[in-house]
Amino acid sequence: MVLTTGQKFMELFSGLDRAHGLGVGRIEKTPPTVDLFKWHLQGGGSGLGIFPLRDDGCVNFAAIDLDEPNFELAETLQSLLPGRTWIERSRSGNAHIWAFFKEPIPAWIPRGIMHFALEAVGRTDVEIFPKQDQLLEGMVGNYINLPWHGDARPILTASGSAIEDRGEWIELAYDERNDPEEWYVRARALDIKPPEERPVSTREQGELGFLHDCALHIIRNREEHPVIEGHRNAVYFHVTKQLLNYKEMTDEEARTLLHELNDAADPPAPEREVDRIFNNARKGGFTGTGCDDPLMAPYVLDTCPIARPKRAAE
Q1: pTM of the prediction?
Q2: How far from the centroid of its chain's Cα atoms is residue 54's Cα?
Q3: What pLDDT shows up at residue 300?
Q4: Collapsing DSSP states into helix, strand and coil, what is residue 46?
Q5: Within 10 A of 180 (CB to CB), how many other CB atoms are there?
Q6: Is 82 within 8 Å of 113 (Cβ atoms)?
Q7: What residue ranges of the chain have pLDDT lower than 70?
Q8: CB-count burial class (<10 Å; 0-12, 13-18, 19+) for 262
Q9: Model confidence over 16-47: pLDDT tens digits?
């Protein structure tokens, strides 16, 4: 079957099939449709955002978000990545680096390679999309706004000049998608391990082999049962402890999940406040769950063995 240019654009940015984002920061729990991609290319609304990480832990695309207009650095990072990549001037004028794949590839491979490239240039503070190797049940991860929103967010050539013909770029990017095997080879050369083969780091938080059920329950039900003002600090602090006590949870993944919980709060706390709470919990090395805190009571599971004695006493 011969695909249209619009269909090829949708194939390039194919990701999670049960949610999408809007450029204004809103998450919609509905599939990204062909009409939404067309609407984006026409410059409709605030644009379309796609969650790159699928439920099977694979991606069709990955990106580095420099969050600054440093296109010289973007070109340096490109040289450290295998295959064909593209630089975009985002809506805010900053540099994004995109990689597309002919077949779905486990997210840990492009994430690991991109992280290595950022380490090589001393910029481990820069975001990579997707931000996780795998999704916890019910989670959606983080979306990234797509390029070519109408006439905005163009793709740049190595010289810094913009590619003017959007259709021409879509055809080129589709034809020059990366062979996943090339990225597999680079990952092996860099000794990048899949999550299940990585050694568990020793840290002050616990080394539990499972995520406490209440943390998953609170995050999974954040839209239906948002954390309200007056409870936020306590809930965020205790949820952070629970996340960090799970040995398979990285700091980056835990911070991302906490921000997802806050995004659904009523009302959300400022991002810097969420980061402050997260950092305090991480630095403290706390190992308790905090489920017996009265401020956690409306959110924890009724079956929680830690909260139950407190409730029984009341």
Answers
A1: 0.76
A2: 11
A3: 94
A4: coil
A5: 19
A6: yes
A7: 158-160, 199-206, 308-314
A8: buried
A9: 999 999 877 788 889 999 999 999 999 999 89
| Lookup: tokens for 86 | 């593209």
Three-class secondary structure of residue 162 per DSSP = strand
Q: Cα 180 to the chain's mean position, in Å?
A: 20
Alpha-carbon gap, residue 86 to 106, rounded angstroms? 20
User: Whats the size of the chain, residue-wise?
Assistant: 314
Task: Tell how strand 48-50 and strand 95-106 pair up.
Answer: unpaired
Q: Which of 43, 1, 58, 46 is nearest to 20 (CA)?
A: 46
User: How many other C-beta atoms lie within 10 A of the C-beta of residue 3?
Assistant: 12
Spatial contact of 113 and 190, defined as CB atoms under 8 Å apart: yes
Which tokens is 89 given? 């001037």
CA angle (309 as vertex; 308, 311 as ends), nearest 5: 65
Contact 130, 50 (CB under 8 A): no
